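Continuing the batch. This is chain 6 of the set; chains 1 through 5 are on the previous pages. Same settings as before, nothing changed between runs. Recording input and output for traceability.
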Amino acid sequence: MVIIRTEDYAEISRKAARLIAAQVLLKPGCVLGLATGSTPNGTYQELIRVHKEEGLSFRTVKTVNLDEYYGLPAEHEQSYHHYMKDKLFDHIDILPENTHVPDGLAPDPANYGKKYDELIVALGGIDLLLLGIGSNRHIAFNEPGVRFSAQTRLVDLDQHTIEDNARFFESEKDVPRQAISMGMKSILGARRIILIASGAGKASAVRDMLEGPIDPMLPASILQLHQDVILIADQAALSLVSPELIQ
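Output for chain 6:
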């Protein structure tokens, strides 16, 4: 795993966006795996800037998102469909038919999850996947205790995750209790993974991802076995990591 230490969140965003932009330039028809939440916001803002000011085109890019709250329609202001349109898709030249976010209203989640995995395969697999990490060590919504062979499926959200995400809703009771999440199998199948982390609140999760045992109770720890992971994090997020691991 390559670790890139940055001065602050803005530098995390610039470096992550540059790597994604390089992937698009190298392979204009690439498949990007995309995350939601507060951490990727800066990365998406920088990609929008690069598109508008430097002419980077996403017209032939295809995307697959990691997850979606179950029970929320795409139009809901807290759905990840809405997030992606608001934070990225509506501001670049990507074709709507080339973007894929899990359906939070899928009537048969088990069958839908299988179809979502088949879609990823049909697209040729994920060339570059952008990840965040939850304070409870989850990636996507693969919560502690996940099977590392898990595929896209309906998951019950951990109470810790519900509490962390309550800030986006009027109250904790409004946070959905389930989500459709890309499985670990598809995540690990990505050719390259960029994981971004910022702030002291993620320090213990980053430490366990890098130095903890590879354990389903620490879902992100499986990334230790991936052949091409780039961690971009600020000093606060890296504050508990052994110094010899950091460039």
